[in-house]
Amino acid sequence: MRFVDDDRVVDPTSGIQMQVIAAGFARCATSSLQAAFENDLGLGPSMHMGHVAPHVDRLKYCVAALLEEDKAKRQAILHKLFDGYAASCDFPGFTFVDDLIEMYPNARVVLNTRKTPEVWQRSITRTLAFFGTDLYYYTCYLIPTDYWHHRVHVTYPTLAKRRWGIEHATYNAELYNAHNAWVRDIAKRAGKDVLEWQPEMGWAPLCEFLGKEVPQKPFPRLNEESFIKKLITFLMIRGVLAWVALLSAPAAAYYAYWWMRN
Q1: Is residue 236 classed exposed, middle or buried when 0-12, 13-18 and 19+ CB atoms within 10 A define those classes?
Q2: Average of per-residue pLDDT values in the chain
Q3: Could you give the CA distance from residue 13 to residue 114 in angstroms, rounded to a whole number?
Q4: What is the pLDDT of residues 211-236, one digit of tens each?
Q5: Whether the predicted pLDDT of 249 surpasses 80
Q6: DSSP for the chain?
Q7: Deepest of 81, 232, 234, 248, by most Cβ within 10 A of its Cβ?
Q8: What pLDDT shows up at residue 167?
Q9: What angle do CA 66, 54, 82 make, to 5 degrees?
Q10: How distant, in Å, are the alpha carbons of 71, 241, 247 from that of 251?
């Protein structure tokens, strides 16, 4: 299952350079863009949270990078995550656009967005926001990847406060607008054009911007809300079963002791 299993191996010494950074937030067609980059536009492999969430070491790198204020140290961490990738979509890439532009100066920048901030807020509130809750934390605490996944979600507001002065950042229009304005400003200061793209726009503007032929097929549509809800259900069941396994042995021992005494 995506976000649970990942057997992809990316060689950081392959010489592959980052060619495109999709700088928009999660729930802005990031999985669809990843599929388009990798399967149709020859821009693979593409970094995505789907290649981070199943790996404790990568999740730890993300938390460390979120907390690291020294640019050189932070970029050293990010090289461990991004070297060998031709593209980036979703987290962690959208969080470190400024660093990635410096690290991979030839990369193009696409700002993938939704129709309105409110549309994005509704989408992410019904899906990914769950991974920052206490319910997720306590239920899935015994699963190392889930523990560190939660850490990523609750650490991000630290960076948002440092970057934009947003106290107790939540998934709302203020955060969405601040991020998109930041991406535009970062790209402008780096002398880069930005393609502002929404999934309804399809292939044509994306391919023109990246200098690619337009595929003769519909644009991919992945990672819909129904899948995220199935993923949450799976992770919660797995977390409960982990607690049952942990507690069943002491319970069985206590019952055996009680039975022998009585």
Answers
A1: middle
A2: 94
A3: 35
A4: 999 999 999 998 789 999 999 999 99
A5: no
A6: -TTT-------TTS-----EEE-SPTTSSHHHHHHHHHHTSS--SEE-GGGTTT-HHHHHHHHHHHH---HHHHHHHHHHHHTT-SEE-STTGGGGHHHHHHHSTT-EEEEE--SSHHHHHHHHHTTGGGGGSHHHHHHTTTSHHHHHHHHHHHHHHHHHHHHH--TT--SSHHHHHHHHHHHHHHHHHTT--EEEE-GGG-HHHHHHHHT-PPPSSPPP--S-HHHHHHHHHHHHHHHHHHHHHHHHHHHHHHHHHHHHH-
A7: 81
A8: 82
A9: 50
A10: 50, 15, 6
Mean pLDDT of 159-184: 93
